Amino acid sequence: MCVKQWAEGADTAPMGLYDLHQRNQINATRHSLSTTQSEVMDQRRRSENEIAALEQRVERLTMLCEAMWELVGQTTGLTGEHLARMVDQLDARDGERNRSHTPGATQCGCGAMVNARVTHCQFCGEAAPARSLFDMI
Ligand SMILES: [Zn+2]
Question: Which end of the chain has the least Cβ crowding within 10 Å, N or C?
Answer without folding.
Answer: C
